[in-house]
Amino acid sequence: MRMKGIYTTWTLQDLALCIIAVVFCSTQGSVMTSNQDVELGGNVTLRCLFQQPHIYQVTWRKKKNGNDENIATYKKDTGSTVLKYKDRINFIIGSPQDTAINLLNVSTEDNGCYECAFLLFPIGPVIGQPCLSVYDDLKTSIDYNVSDNHLHAKCLATGFPRPNISWFPSGGEKKEKDITNPNGTLSVISNILISKSNVEQGLTCHISHRGKMISLEVLGKEIDHTKISFPVVPVVLALILVILVIVVSVCCWRRQRKKHRGF
């Protein structure tokens, strides 16, 4: 009888745990969220919708460097509280089931994924994860010169997230440097030194950013006729000097000729 009672107790406990697990699993993944894109400096709203009763608490977190940072929370008995970035976050509670955060003047540090954790009794937290993609429009430039039968080209791309640069043709010596700007955007500077004979059909800098490709070309005819390292200023000065010498010589010759005729 004692064994039967223990067995019955364990069976009831297991059944209760199974019921809780089934309920818990049925709620997992039912938090409705949507990912958002926003331009640097803009405003954006991240929303979580969870149509379940018995929500005691809602907490918003920012996933940062592998750690979760609490930024806002709502409790049924105390109301809502903004914990971080108070000057840039509006915490919106339509109901415990419908919650959102409004981010103002978005920076590159706001980029990433967030968590909205709904605390249910007696199940525990159910989590949604909306992600925010911050971007800045791409700015590009290219410059080049030819010296000693080699082409040196520099391709610059600034934006957020980080732009990627590649060259075609892909030979030559390449050096790349990243610069983080004060506003958090990234500048990528790619230099290439390549033999002029290898780029007779031209050289192209390919820049990929947010799924788009931009190509900046250095055409072959431009390589042949423009931006070639050449001592332009000394040559021009020499030509001017030659012209002055010729003019002075002609004037002197005419003056001497008039003198001879006068005699």
Task: Please report the distance between the alpha carbons of the first and last residues.
Answer: 157 Å
Q: Helices and strands, in N-to-C order? A: HEEEEEEEEEEEEEEEEEHH
Unreliable stretches, pLDDT < 50, 5 or more residues? Answer: 6-10, 14-29, 225-230
Helix and strand content put the structural class at alpha+beta
Mean pLDDT: 83
Q: Which value, in Å, is the CA radius of gyration?
A: 36 Å
What's the number of helices?
A: 3
Number of strands: 17
Q: Which percent range describes the beta-strand content?
A: over 45%
User: Main beta sheet: strand number and arrangement?
Assistant: 10 strands, mixed
Instruction: Give the overall shape.
Output: elongated
In helices, the fraction of residues equals 10-25%
Signal peptide: 1-29
Transmembrane segments: 232-253
Keywords: Disulfide bond, Glycoprotein, Immunoglobulin domain, Membrane, Signal, Transmembrane, Transmembrane helix
Protein name: LOW QUALITY PROTEIN: OX-2 membrane glycoprotein
Can you offer a commentary on this structure?
By secondary structure, the protein is α+β, with helices and mostly antiparallel strands. Helix content is 24%, strand content 48%. The protein contains 3 helices and 17 strands. The longest helix has 31 residues, at 232-262. The radius of gyration is 36 Å and the shape is elongated. 19% of the residues are buried. Residues 1-29 form the signal peptide.
